[in-house]
Each structure stands twice: as C-alpha cells, then as structure tokens.
Amino acid sequence: MIKKNNTLKRILLFNGIALVSLVLFYKLHISLFNDSSWKLNFSLLSVYLFFSIASLVIISVIEILFDVTPANAGYIFLVGIFIKMGLFILIFYSKGLADAKMNVIEKLSIFAPLFLFLLIETLAITTRLKQDD
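Given the sequence above, the corresponding structure tokens read:
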C-alpha cells in the first residue's frame, strides 16, 4: 500500500510540475513574440501541448511500470522518448512542417519545449532510480 501511495504522489508531483511548466513557459514564450515582428509558421500552443501531454503519459507509465519491473525503467524511458519523437514527426511534419523553411527562431521554438519536457521526464526517472537504491 505504501508503494502505491508513493507512486501516486510521484505521478501527481511530476505531472504537476509538467503542467505548471506548460503554462509558465508557454506564457513566457508568447510574451517574447508579442513584442516582436517574428511570426511562426506553426501553432506554438500545439507544440507545447503535444510535448506536455507526451510528458504526462511517459512519466505516468514509467511510475506505474517501475513498481512492476524496476530493472527495465531506463528502457521504458527510452522507448517512451522514441515513441514521442516518432509521433511528433508523424503529426507535425505531415501538417507541412517539413515543407516549410524554418529560421532559427522557429527551430528554437520547437526545441525549447522539447528539451523542457525532456528535462522534466529525465528528472522524474533519475529521482525514481536513485530512490530505489
């Protein structure tokens, strides 16, 4: 019972961090573009939403499966990242992102949420692996 209660607390904690990060960093990102003449060829909100939802799923799956198979947590994490990137390419590149010539600002606008949520996922799994020792 204690293990499941701890798992639920960790899921809520790291998913909460991901949701707060979604709101804060999206608002910050938007505020940087409101004052400038840069226009993105894609929806910044959809990129942030995709990476945040994928992060919520990856964190939840890792936490739940960690109780079942703790030795495979790293592999589960890598598979989750692989699936997330594959889905991103399928969804966003099929909408014409591959055809558009992207400038540095547009590339950074994709990499910023990618690395933000990757960092949160990495922190979730590393703290979980350290806690198991």
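Residues 2-34+45-132 form one domain. Try to locate this feature in the token string yourself.
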